[in-house]
Amino acid sequence: MLPENDGIVRAQEDILFLGPDEGTAHLMDWASSYAKSRGYSYWKAITTGKSPSRGGIPHDEYGMTTHSVRQFVTGIQSKLNLKAPGAKRLTKVQTGGPDGDLGSNEILMSEGEDTIAVVDGSGVLYDPNGINRAELVRLAKARSPVEGFNKSLLSKDGYLVLISQNDVKLPSGEVVENGTQFRNNFHNRSDVTADFFVPCGGRPAAVNLSNVTNFMYQADGKTLRFKYIVEGANLFFTQDARLVLEKAGVVLFKDASANKGGVTSSSLEVMAALSMTDAEFGEHMAVTAGKPKPAFYQAYVAEVQTRIDNNATKEFECLWREHQRTPTPYAILTNLLSERITDLSVTIQDSSLYEQKALRDVILKDGFPKTLQAKISYDELLKRLPESYLRALFASQLASRFVYSCGLNCPEFAFYEFVQTLNH
């Protein structure tokens, strides 16, 4: 967005996409407005994480990241028949509480599972008999931390320890000297065990090579505390800790695969913004406080959620198949899968495949949400969207479609056979 008289020769206008990170979420609306004031053509799409009044799709309100996390949780349950008739209820421990995006949505979307522990900024909530779900849901809907939990709803074995408390006596007789230290180290307690561990918050590298053994085993030093781990929060585990856990028999899916839902939502938010005129965007994507959300906005959000579910299921199925085929850990397979899709996408962009109209139409018509195509025709979308964007979308869609279908071990000629099937 440099001034046009800056002396820089441009072959084409730059397309910038910026997303919020720690401490920058409040700048997304401002950045969009500033881009508009500078006359930037793509001001509507320059930032994601905007307010709904600016056409943003809030990940927390619609559980976008959790949608993909849950596909991995339920995928494990389905593959291993963990919810068969007569099976015991599944138990879960989660970090990240009902006051957060991932924590609240994990609670709301996990009906049918017994959450036995929740750790958040305010403290530790634990009940080995299952935390009262109705009360957890109440907190999640209110986006309130566990300190607001009604302790009268705990069983005789349950407890709530806040970071502000000291010298708290637990039902077992153990005395917690410092609530903050207790909270910080709770995930390593050998007596806290469940079927699933789903980190939805916490410090990066909370589990690393130096403490993974403590995290992994119960007091006997050989029985696993958790059988299945699906990472909602980024970087809770270091890669070397993941590999130790998998070698010990834990089924673990890392953050880069499990929590892609937020990225998918942001990319489709960008697509809508790039596709619409300012007037269309204001009518169909901008939400006015105190008024019903536009019908298009509601339908589009619902389709985004469906696409997140479908994409996450495809990634889960691909990883599961590859792990069955080889002894490669899931944590490594995630990296290999990402590299394979990225490398193939680059190869496709450097090829002439985009010029094959029949193939291009198949891929892009599938890549454009149906809700968007119902509002703006396919041919019109091709006219409105920048060619560089269309080419990148085509390449990434085709690459992921092939890799998810054929896996990591397909020979090069299999790709060309795959393309031929799409051309007919």
From TrEMBL:
The keyword Transport does not apply. InterPro entries: Glu/Leu/Phe/Val/Trp_DH_C (IPR006096), NAD(P)-bd_dom_sf (IPR036291). SMART domains: ELFV_dehydrog (SM00839). Gene3D superfamilies: NAD(P)-binding Rossmann-like Domain. One of its GO terms (molecular function) is glutamate dehydrogenase (NAD+) activity. The keyword Ribonucleoprotein does not apply. Keywords: NAD, Oxidoreductase. One of its GO terms (cellular component) is mitochondrion. Residues 56-327 form the Glutamate/phenylalanine/leucine/valine/L-tryptophan dehydrogenase C-terminal domain. Pfam families: ELFV_dehydrog. GO terms for biological process: L-glutamate catabolic process. It comes from the Eukaryota. This is Glutamate/phenylalanine/leucine/valine/L-tryptophan dehydrogenase C-terminal domain-containing protein. The lineage of its organism: Eukaryota, Sar, Stramenopiles, Oomycota, Saprolegniomycetes.
